[in-house]
Amino acid sequence: MKIQDSVLGEANARREADLRRDYESLGERLARRGIAIDAIKAKIAAFGIALPSWAAGTGGTRFARFPGAGEPRDVFDKIDDCGAVHRLTGLAPAISLHIPWDKADPAALLARAGEHGLIFDAVNSNTFQDHPDLPLSFKYGSLSHVDKAVRDQAVAHNLDCVELGRKIGSKALSIWIGDGSNFPGQADFTRQLDRYLESAHRIYAGLPEDWRLFVEHKMYEPAFYSTVVQDWGTSYLIAQELGAKAACLVDLGHHAPNVNIEMIVARLIRFGKLAGFHFNDSKYGDDDLDAGVIDPYRLFLVFNELVNAEGTPGFSPAYMLDESHNVTDPLESMMASAMEVARAHAQALLVDRAALRAHQESNDALMASETLKTAFRTDVEPILAMARLEKGAAIDPVAAFRALGYRAQAAAQRPKVSGAGGGIV
Ligand code: LRH
Ligand code: MN
């Protein structure tokens, strides 16, 4: 699909004068708060997230999946679609692949990504489904399975992911496993964890020197009584046990409702074990909704901890989305989500940290809260849009996407797929 520069230019031209006026007036207001708007814009212009290849197509639940028009047929269509999201937002210079869903020739992957100026972020292994080309089943687990042969199969798959990742320039392996139990008594918690650790040590030993290993915790699903890597504490202990290359990946949807995720982030930063994020939003479980649609203040509070930690030695968290777009155009949702993450970052950059610290040190709870709210209440859209415009992206990416008729072009080129069965992809 072609992003016609002319259409994008016209769409921007209609909005540019208003944007410049809005940017200027916001600049005046921020200057009164001692903030240089161009400095914030520069930081946002340097900010980027990775898109999950698996969210480029319509997602589903265990009940059903209702594919839309122009669904990506393979990883190359997914790369093109992620390329369009980056072209229109300027915010998504990387893709996170999932293996075996995205297994393909590394040179061909690099070439296609190169056409869109994209790089590959963390590679995700998958031992939560059986693979057509693997003999043993992961029904009763993978890296923690009671049967060593199944664990060996899972370890080998993870090392294959590292091998593919090395060839496409990725620098991290991201491991989420669904291993756990559905009945009290079904698993011995400690023996199960020890089997996982034995497997994880073997994977860790196979990492290239400059790679990282991301351990992703999740409270439940697909296991509904216990999960081996169930919470940030277990993830932290595992990362400690494995070594310096291992750290903890925080998927916002993997916690019980009302858990204080921003404090978990602060803890992982304090102990040097924050790997990065799978941004999304949720109201109940691992809903994988678009980032910032349910609780934008929580997303802001997470970035408040991240901005607070800027400058900490070795602090370079991986920023990725992980969403399931069941009722929207997946690309429009990824554009909106990328912008919501950048919005939370920009708002967190506006926090008067000296004032905040003074209120904290004097137990002035109200003014401490108001200091955060002042930043969160600031409409930073002119900064985000100006950063996009100056990158040659769209002032209004979703409007440009629709004006371009990208989805209709895709539908014309890609055969309609049926919605047989459920499942997230
Ligand atoms: C598990 C998870 C994990 C991915 C999968 C697609 O819920 O968040 O990060 O492997 O979604
Ligand atoms: Mn995730």
What does this structure look like?
- It contains 15 helices and eleven strands.
- The two termini are 22 Å apart.
- It is 47% helix and 9% strand.
- The model has no long low-confidence stretch (mean pLDDT 96).
- A six-stranded parallel β-sheet has the order 4-5-7-9-10-11.
- The protein has 425 residues and is α/β, with parallel strands linked by helices.
- It binds 6-deoxy-beta-L-fructofuranose (LRH) and manganese (II) ion.
- The site of 6-deoxy-beta-L-fructofuranose (LRH) has 9 residues, from loops.
- The site of manganese (II) ion (MN) has 5 residues, from loops.
List how many beta strands DSSP finds: 11
Q: What topology, given as strand order, has the largest sheet?
A: 4-5-7-9-10-11
Overall morphology: globular
Question: What do the pLDDT scores average to?
Answer: 96
Percent strand:
5-15%
Bound chemical compounds: 6-deoxy-beta-L-fructofuranose, manganese (II) ion
Given helix and strand content, the structural type is: alpha/beta
Distance between the first and last residues' Cα: 22 Å
* Helicity level: 40-55%
Rg computed from alpha carbons, rounded to a whole number of angstroms: 22 Å
Low-confidence stretches: none
Let me know the largest β-sheet: 6 strands, parallel
H/E element sequence = HHEHEHEEHEEHEEHEHEHEHHHHHH
Count of helix runs: 15
